[in-house]
Amino acid sequence: MRPQLYSVNKLSDLTGADRKTLNKLIHANGIKPTDGKYALADIRACLDGKADKSLKDQKLAEEIRKLQIKNDKDQGKLIERARVAAGIMSVGPRMLSVLEQKLMNEQPGFVDPGLQGILRSHNRRVINETFSEWSSFASSLEMEPAEILAWLRERHGGLFTT
């Protein structure tokens, strides 16, 4: 007889553990889903075993994790943070220049001439806020916002004002 299978949400309700913890346990223990669902017995076994892991088991798990990362890197499955940052840096200026074209040059043409100045001022704030959010995302990849701003100004002149 096949065990009853449950989604992570239902397992969370049944076990009292949050979904994030269950997902970590599932991944750490290599439990494979069946039709996207898991057996309650497998999850309970993981939850019971979680509390009494010895230092040796923790070190072994850490060593396995490091080996998995090394293998993934050797197989080309991991993307270097620098490549991701470079991709973001290449997309950002194009995205912001399209925003400026649309918001500063095209959109004001659709409103009354007396409102164009107000609209351009508002749109400049939108562009600057977008740049700020983009910078904070890029800086989460260990890049300095000042470095990003200097890089953008170097390539795109007065487009970026803060």
Strand content: under 5%
Number of helices: 7
Helix/strand-derived category reads mainly alpha
Average pLDDT, rounded to a whole number, is 78
The largest pleated sheet is described as: 2 strands, antiparallel
H-E string: EHHEHHHHH
Helix content: 55-70%
**How are strands sequenced across the largest beta sheet?**
1-2
Kindly, what is the distance between the CA atoms of the first and last residues, rounded to a whole number of angstroms? 66 Å
Overall number of domains = 2
Q: Which regions contain 5 or more consecutive residues with pLDDT less than 50?
A: none
- Strands, total number: 2
Shape, principal axes of CA atoms: elongated
Radius of gyration: 25 Å
Account of the protein in words:
The chain is mostly helical and 162 residues long. It folds into 2 domains: 5-74; 81-159. It is 70% helix and 2% strand. The protein has 7 helices and 2 strands. The protein has helices at 8-15, 19-29, 40-51, 55-74, 81-106, 116-139, 145-156; strands at 5-6, 38-39. A two-stranded antiparallel ribbon has the order 1-2. The radius of gyration is 25 Å and the shape is elongated. The model has no long low-confidence stretch (mean pLDDT 78).
Summed up:
The protein has 162 residues and is mainly alpha-helical. It is built from seven helices and two strands, in the order βααβααααα.
